[in-house]
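Researcher: Structure for this, please.
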Amino acid sequence: MKQISILGCGWLGLPLAITLLKNGLKVKGSTTSEAKIALLEKNGIVPFLISLSEKQILGDTAEFLENSTVLIINIPPKLKGNLNENFVAKIRNFIPFIEKSLIQNVLFISSTAVYTDDNSIITEETIPNPTTESGKQLLEVEQLLLNNENFQTVILRFGGLIGEERHPIHFLSGRKAIENPNAPINLIHQKDCIGIIEKILEQAQDNKHFWNEIYNAVAPFHPSRKAYYTQKAMDLNLSIPEFVEDIESVGKIIMSDKVEKRLGYKFINNLL
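Model: Predicted structure, token format:
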């Protein structure tokens, strides 16, 4: 494994690409923004302007995939607000390009949104039952990739993504009537996301039978939403959010035992 292609060099993809470059790999990275091409080049990433839609793929996809044996797909569904894309169609349109390339392995960044909130403990053995449109489309894409015989796939289901400049408390601060105060948090830090991907790529080099697996990835720290966000607001000197107490909370606890045991990964930010 000397070269990797990363479809989506955004909040997670860009620092991931930079880390893989430091590990001695050549990295091709895609963006949908012309303004970001220079940034990718500056960091040593071979840049490509590629845009997926429900009807067509724009950009030099063949060159983007050429000579890479691993593809990391890191583009989330755009299904918030007025955006309501067909994410499944976008990935389905992209798959023939993967099939024609030398790509042997695909790492798909998915989400724990594929599991429903039913106050249960979730493992990789739990049968997904998504209730959101995003979760439903992510699950369908997972199956498209896992069932394709032209390459092998690892599905990585991340919890809520946080990092140095990204944290839900900035959105929740000062808000009132927030639901599910007693639901547990399921978050993961950007550094842990990158560390887990590094572990997967490292072990996959030595084990051809490693692929076609699913991993949940959430920090092993699950206080209630109210307790966690109240404390986080206090730590950052922000307005404390107010929660609705008279409605039963619903949520889930995502377990990441497989990541820790199978990959031997130890979470860096397990207290977030």
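Researcher: Any notable elements?
Model: Residues 190-206 form the longest helix (17 residues). The first strand starts at residue 3 and ends at 7.
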